């Protein structure tokens, strides 16, 4: 085989997007952008199409195009967040305009309206979850109501328990919500016990600092050195823990009879569990988690 044929496809002169080497570029911004796109594709799962693609869209490059488009939309919102933070820090429109590569007037015109109340509330919740995570990593005695769930179990045991519980919950949440909708008189009885079971399972995983230490310590190694571009297992494992804390924020208070609160909690738990399972199925995350002894 000719040397040029070995490293370059005759159909495409660049590195294929499906290659672990695809992120490489001498331009650091391009490198990070490609990594972000590839990470999103890998979180969706191998061979799994994200929302917006048809099952017939089997060529993987289509998933990369979709991920790039989704990230482009998200980046617009993130830029608005950053400008709002800059204004909160007291920075001038002239300074912001320079960072945008425009000018004072253009920046002021684009961002003068600021963030919506809904977006500000979302950012507040994210900041609160990050604060909760910082508290959760500190050694402390777990709450008595979940200490029995932790007794004798290792972090690996609890992770396996979480996965089993998540699969079970995802199989029943839609049915529970439909049952409550069709039988409003008994909706509280239908929803309360499953909600408390989910709350207890998530709490058992997140309240013990040993679980956080394990997730941070399971860094693993990629199967091959040239796959290190996408190997960020610790980041994703700790993201799983923060997602679980996020779901707990919506758990109804003890003694609550507000059906809407139970519905919201089940919906949030369903979203979080789906994301958690996608993350845990990533190859780099799977390599990091130690095998049971």
How is this structure best described in words?
The structure is a single chain. The protein is mostly helical and 293 residues long. 67% of the residues lie in helices and 0% in strands. 22% of the residues are buried. Residues 1-5 have low confidence and may be disordered.
User: Into which percent range does the helicity of residues fall?
Assistant: 55-70%
The count of β-strands is 0
Summed over residues and divided by their number, the pLDDT gives a mean of: 88
Q: N-to-C terminal Cα separation, in Å?
A: 46 Å
- What are the low-pLDDT stretches, counting only 5+ consecutive residues below 50? 1-5
What is the overall shape?
Answer: globular
Secondary-structure element order, N to C: HHHHHHHHHHHHH
Keywords:
293 residues, 13 helices, 67% helix, 0% strand, globular, disordered N terminus
List the helices and strands and how they pair.
Layout: H1 3-7, H2 28-44, H3 60-88, H4 93-100, H5 104-111, H6 117-136, H7 144-150, H8 155-182, H9 187-206, H10 209-217, H11 233-248, H12 259-280, H13 283-288
Helix pairs in contact: 2-3, 4-5, 6-11, 7-9, 8-9, 8-12, 9-11, 9-12, 10-11, 11-12
């Amino acid at each position: 085989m000719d040397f040029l044929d070995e490293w370059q496809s005759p159909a495409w002169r660049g590195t294929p997007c499906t290659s672990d080497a695809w992120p490489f570029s001498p331009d650091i911004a391009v490198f990070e952008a490609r990594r972000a796109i590839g990470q999103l594709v890998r979180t969706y799962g191998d061979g799994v199409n994200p929302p917006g693609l048809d099952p017939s869209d089997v060529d993987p490059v289509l998933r990369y195009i979709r991920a790039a488009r989704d990230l482009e939309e998200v980046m617009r919102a993130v830029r608005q967040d950053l400008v709002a933070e800059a204004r909160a820090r007291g920075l001038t429109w002239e300074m912001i305009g320079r960072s945008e590569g425009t000018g004072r007037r253009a920046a002021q015109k684009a961002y003068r309206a600021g963030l919506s109340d809904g977006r500000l509330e979302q950012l507040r919740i994210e900041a609160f979850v990050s604060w909760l995570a910082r508290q959760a990593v500190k050694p402390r005695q777990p709450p008595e109501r979940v200490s029995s769930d932790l007794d004798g179990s290792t972090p690996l045991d609890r992770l396996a328990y979480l996965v089993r519980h998540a699969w079970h919950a995802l199989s029943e949440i839609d049915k529970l919500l439909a049952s409550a909708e069709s039988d409003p008189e008994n909706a509280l009885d239908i929803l309360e016990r499953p909600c408390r079971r989910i709350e207890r399972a998530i709490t058992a995983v997140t309240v013990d600092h040993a679980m956080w230490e394990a997730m941070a310590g399971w860094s693993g190694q990629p199967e091959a050195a040239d796959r290190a571009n996408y190997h960020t297992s610790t980041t994703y494992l700790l993201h799983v823990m923060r997602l679980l804390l996020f779901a707990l924020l919506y758990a109804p208070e003890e003694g609550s009879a507000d059906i809407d609160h139970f519905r919201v909690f089940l919906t949030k738990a369903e979203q979080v569990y789906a994301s958690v399972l996608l993350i845990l199925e990533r190859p780099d995350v799977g390599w990091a988690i130690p095998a049971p002894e």
